[in-house]
Amino acid sequence: MLRKLTADDWIAAGLKALAREGFTALKADVIARRLKVSRGSFYWHFADIAAFEAAVMRRWRDVMAEAIIRDLERLAAARERLPRLLRLAFDADPALEIAMRAWAASDTRARAVVRAVDKRRLAYLARMLREAGVAAAHGGPRAQILYWSYLGFALSAKPVTGRARDRLIDELGQLGRGNG
Questions:
Q1: Would you say 129 and 139 are in contact if contact means Cβ atoms under 8 Å apart?
Q2: Is 38 within the bounds of a domain?
Q3: Looking at the domain assignment, is residue 2 inside a domain?
Q4: Which of 30, 88, 90, 133 has the largest count of CB atoms under 10 Å?
C-alpha cells in the first residue's frame, strides 16, 4: 500500500530541492517527479506555488533559527550555549543558507523572511552573550561580529575542518567570555 504524502513531506522535499538546486527548483511538477507522485498530491496540500513557497520559507526559519534556539535553551548553563552554537554553525552544510539568501536577492517575500531570521539570530546572540556575563555595551557588537563570521563562512561555501575549525571556534568563543 502506498503511503499518502503530507504537507510536511512536500515541504521537506522543497527544502532539499532548495538546498541542492536553488529556488527555481520549487515547482510542483519537479518535486512531484522526485516524490514519484502526481501533481494532484501537491494541490491537495497547497492552493498554489506561492502557498508552497511560503511554507518552505516558514520551515527554513524554523530549522535555521527557532529549532537551534530551542536546542540551545535546553542547556542549563549560559556559558555552554555559545560553544554549542559555534559547533553547530561551523559543522553545518551551508547549502541551505546560501540558497535561501540567493532566493532573497530576487524575491521580496524571501527577503523579508531572511531579514526576520537575521534579526532573530542577532537578538538571540546578544541575549546569550549578556546571560554569559558579557557587559551589555559589548553584547551587541560582539553578536554582530559572531554573526558576520558565520555568514562569511556560510556564504563562502569554503569548508573549515579539523584543527582550523577548532581554532576558529576557540577564537570566536573568546567573544563570549564575560570580560568587558
A1: yes
A2: yes
A3: no
A4: 90
**98-154 confidence digits (pLDDT tens):** 999 999 999 999 999 999 999 999 999 999 999 999 999 999 999 999 999 999 999
Q: Is the Cβ–Cβ distance between 59 and 123 less than 8 Å?
A: no
**In the predicted structure, residue 45 carries a pLDDT above the cut 60:** yes
CA dist., res. 39 & res. 52, Å (int): 13
Which grid cell sits at 99? 540558497
Contact 153, 97 (CB under 8 A): no
pLDDT of residue 159: 79
pLDDT one-digit tens code per residue, 158-180? 878 889 999 999 999 999 887 65
Domain that holds residue 155: 7-176
Task: Tell me whether residue 111 is in a domain.
Answer: yes
Closest CA to 56 of 16, 14, 107: 14
Q: The CATH number of the domain where 99 resides is what?
A: 1.10.357.10
Half-sphere exposure of 72 (CA within 13 A, CB side): 26
Does pLDDT of 1 surpass 60? Answer: no
Residue 1 belongs to a domain:
no
Give residue 78's pLDDT. 87
CA separation for the pair 53, 99 (Å, rounded): 13
